[in-house]
TrEMBL record, chain A:
UniProt xrefs under InterPro entries: Fe-S_cluster_assembly_SufBD, SUF_FeS_clus_asmbl_SufBD_core, SUF_FeS_clus_asmbl_SufBD_sf, SUF_FeS_clus_asmbl_SufD, SufBD_N
Residues annotated as signal peptide: none
Domain (SUF system FeS cluster assembly SufBD N-terminal): residue spans on this chain: 17-169
Full protein name: Fe-S cluster assembly protein SufD
Domain SUF system FeS cluster assembly SufBD core as annotated: residue spans: 179-406
SUPFAM superfamilies noted in UniProt: Stabilizer of iron transporter SufD
Family listed: Belongs to the iron-sulfur cluster assembly SufBD family.
Record PANTHER family: PROTEIN ABCI7, CHLOROPLASTIC (PTHR43575:SF1)
Pfam family, one: SufBD_N
GO BP terms, alphabetized: iron-sulfur cluster assembly
Species: Brumicola pallidula DSM 14239 = ACAM 615
Gene (name only): sufD
UniProtKB/TrEMBL annotation, chain B:
GO molecular function, one term: ATP binding
Organism lineage string: Bacteria, Pseudomonadati, Pseudomonadota, Gammaproteobacteria, Alteromonadales
PANTHER family: ABC TRANSPORTER I FAMILY MEMBER 6, CHLOROPLASTIC (PTHR43204:SF1)
Pfam families found in the cross-reference section: ABC_tran
Name of this chain's protein: Fe-S cluster assembly ATP-binding protein
Keyword ATP-binding: yes
Every ABC transporter domain range: 2-246
Range of residues in the leader sequence: none
Origin superkingdom: Bacteria
InterPro entries named among the record's database cross-references: AAA+_ATPase, ABC_transporter-like_ATP-bd, FeS-cluster_ATPase_SufC, P-loop_NTPase
Primary gene name: sufC
Coiled coil regions, renumbered to chain: none
Length: 440, 257
């Protein structure tokens, strides 16, 4: 705990970045916020189910420890890296290693839509400064402020008016390196009026190296824009804290599919602010935790104006002694009449020692709305298990099949065939490494 | 093939089977009939190895092996198939995946060559046709949203795929219209062979109009109280079960129950 405070106090002075001076205003404002913000403790309501102090003790919250891989070490692992990308996916591939963009691994020729902050034109710089940290104008949390205060670079995806992007953006962040390190990821998506795009984010640790990623994603979805966003968090060895904020304008659609494997600590904060009428948000997620892992998903749907729709479905699988948290908040502001908001979280406990804390929260200040929420925690259906066994399928395999079936509803909704196939294979192989009780 | 001696079994601590004896040889078709609560379903569940059905005395040998010592999956691999009275719905697992996994598990155990994906699909489609199920059913979740009749036909379809040595059909005929009943009967008759045996557990004579049993046993209060040929089923149809045991109150014609 003491260690941690030292690091975080330190950086605001001595370790402040000098790169990209035009971002200095962003960094200063965040540093200012950090003087007041505290590292969350178990007494912080939003963090109370995680032993944050314990989980973070060995990880530095300091971005300075990140380092670029030299080309020699890149060559050594080239083949391995190629295998860790989604096969057959035709996309603008943008690869980051430990938060640093790696051009050799990327395939983004003829991609006019995205640019690194460090390569931004004057106009783009202005766009970035105008948008960064504004998606959520009344609340800043500790970790996203930390990200902003240390901001050196980031990725801007700017989709012009009425443009339908021909292929998905495939953003990969790999954690590689023997020394645990913290990387900062920053993604800014600005979808102009009437534009359409698909974004696939993929976090992975192909060598199972440990580390920490502090990610901030801001998506501005303007009028009539349509964004499909898949987030694959497949890095079981990496501690990850992600603050993800979406701001939607009128008639816009934002779809998210999140597939998360837990790790020592994985925390996702998703806030969707519906700020224009007839905007629609569709959030699907599944998470899987095993061993002593933790995963915490906090979502918040801010219904600010009338006639918006949000639909949220999360499925959780928790095995061994893992700990999962799901907190889904729907906040309907006084003006947001005719809101339609639905939230469902179903969980399967695969062991007697696994924990899930699930809490749907409705906060409604308008009187003409339709809201529903539900959360369940259950176990594998013994009838289904026996049915499979009676057809010659061993108990352990039957459990595996039923576990995968539980999250299949989410996985099967991944719109891209290649992504779906990749995720299916990864989750399937994950379960084969399990040795549930009764395995022969 | 199957030899049950003095079998006693409890469900939730209550004794349901009270000393049951039956001997089934390859090629034979046995019908077990009896009133509700006589222990018919308990017998099929004990044979398949369901958890809360506990054999407290007696022996069951199947192909020379002690059946009660085997896990449910191993019983299936040895060649026992139970067509469920209430097949369970499993959303998220397609019929095709399920059948493929099941067949692979059985074939691996029985040292049979594994089918290629193409061979498997061809076989599955063929069997679907036999039980009058559209091949689209293969892509759907196991029994998910199936009607009662479709679930029963799916059980028969699985039986045709897995080609077990001993087929147990637990009230597969109940709740079926006449067309579905014929499909079920056809499925059974297709599989009849000198090295395969059947135990049809049923309440009514109806199915036996289409599948001629070699033996009919009447189960009452956990014991076989009468055995005979197929003519016994007709007699039961006529007189009901009450003439067998004065203690049980049954309608004279079980079809009116």
């Amino acid at each position: 705990m003491n260690n941690l405070k030292l690091v975080t106090n330190d950086f605001s002075g001595a370790q402040r970045s000098q790169k990209n001076p035009w971002l200095q205003g962003i960094r200063d404002a965040a540093s200012e916020r950090l003087r007041v913000l505290q590292l969350p403790t178990r007494k912080t309501e939003d963090w109370k189910y995680l032993k944050l102090e314990k989980l973070l003790a060995n990880d530095q919250l300091d971005a300075q420890s990140m380092q670029e891989l030299d080309s020699k070490s890149l060559e050594d692992i080239d083949e391995l890296l190629e295998q860790s990308f989604i096969d057959g996916l035709d996309a603008y591939r943008l690869v980051f290693v430990n938060g640093v963009f790696v051009s050799q691994l990327s395939q983004h020729d003829s991609n006019p839509y995205s640019v690194l902050f460090s390569a931004a034109s004057k106009a783009q710089q202005q766009l970035i400064v105008d948008h960064l940290d504004t998606s959520h104008n009344y609340y800043h949390d500790y970790f996203s402020s930390l990200n902003s205060a240390q901001l050196e670079d980031g990725l801007l995806i700017n989709i012009p008016k009425d443009c339908v992007v021909d292929k998905p953006f495939y953003i990969v962040n790999l954690t590689i390196g023997e020394q645990p390190k913290t990387s900062m990821m920053r993604l800014l998506v600005i979808a102009e009026t009437g534009s359409t795009a698909t974004i696939i984010e993929h976090e992975d640790a192909p060598l199972k190296h440990t580390g920490m990623v502090n990610t901030v994603i801001e998506c501005f979805v303007n009028d009539h824009a349509y964004i499909t966003h898949s987030r694959l968090q497949l890095d079981e060895s990496v501690t990850s804290i992600c603050s993800h904020r979406v701001r939607q304008s009128a008639h816009s659609t934002y779809q998210q599919h999140q597939i998360s494997l837990a790790s020592k600590l994985k925390r996702n904060d998703l806030t969707v602010a519906l700020r224009g009428e007839y905007a629609s948000a569709d959030i699907r997620g599944s998470f899987y935790g095993r061993h002593q892992q933790s995963i915490d998903n906090h979502t918040c749907m801010e219904h600010i104006v009338p006639n918006c729709t949000s639909n949220e479905v999360f499925r959780g699988l928790v095995d061994n002694e893992a700990n999962a948290v799901f907190n889904g908040r729907i906040h309907i502001h006084p003006d947001a009449q005719k809101t339609l908001a639905e939230l469902s979280n179903k969980n399967l406990l695969l062991s007697d020692f696994a924990t899930i804390n699930t809490k749907p929260e409705l906060e409604i200040y308008a009187d003409d709305v339709r809201c529903s929420h539900g959360a369940t925690v259950g176990q594998i259906d013994n009838e289904a298990l026996f049915y499979l066994q009676s057809r010659g399928i061993p108990k352990a395999e039957a459990k595996r099949i039923l576990s995968l079936a539980f999250i299949a509803e989410i996985v099967n909704q991944l719109t891209d065939d290649n992504v779906r196939e990749f995720v299916s294979q990864r989750s399937s192989s994950l379960f084969t490494t399990l040795q549930p009780e009764g395995a022969k | 093939m199957l030899n049950i001696k003095n079998l006693k079994a409890n469900v939730d601590g209550k004794e349901i089977l009270k000393g049951l004896n039956i001997d089934v040889k390859p090629g034979e078709v046995h019908a077990i009939m009896g009133p509700n609560g006589s222990g018919k379903s308990t017998l099929s569940n004990v044979l398949a190895g369901r958890d809360k059905y506990e054999a407290t005395a007696g022996t069951i040998t199947f192909g020379g092996k002690d059946l009660l010592a085997l896990e449910p999956e191993d019983r299936a691999r040895e060649g026992i198939f139970l067509a469920f009275q209430y097949p369970v719905e499993i959303p998220g697992v397609s019929n095709l995946e399920f059948l493929k996994t099941s067949l692979e598990c059985l074939h691996a155990y029985q040292n049979k060559p594994l089918l290629s994906a193409v061979e498997f699909l061809k076989l599955a489609r063929e069997k679907c046709k036999l039980v009058d199920l559209h091949t689209d059913f293969l892509k759907r979740g196991v029994n998910e949203g199936f009607s009662g009749g479709e679930k029963k036909r799916n059980e028969i379809m699985q039986m045709l795929m897995l080609e077990p040595k001993l087929c147990l059909l637990d009230e597969t005929d109940s709740g079926l219209d006449i067309d579905a009943l014929k499909v079920v009967a056809d499925g059974i008759n297709t599989l009849r062979s000198p090295d395969r045996a059947f135990i049809l557990i049923t309440h009514y004579q109806r199915l036996l109009d289409y599948v001629q049993p070699d033996f009919v046993h009447v189960l009452s209060d956990g014991q076989i109280v009468k055995s005979g040929g197929s003519e016994l089923a007709l007699e039961l149809e006529d007189k009901g079960y009450s003439w067998l045991e004065s203690g049980t109150e049954q309608s004279a014609n079980p079809l009116k129950v």
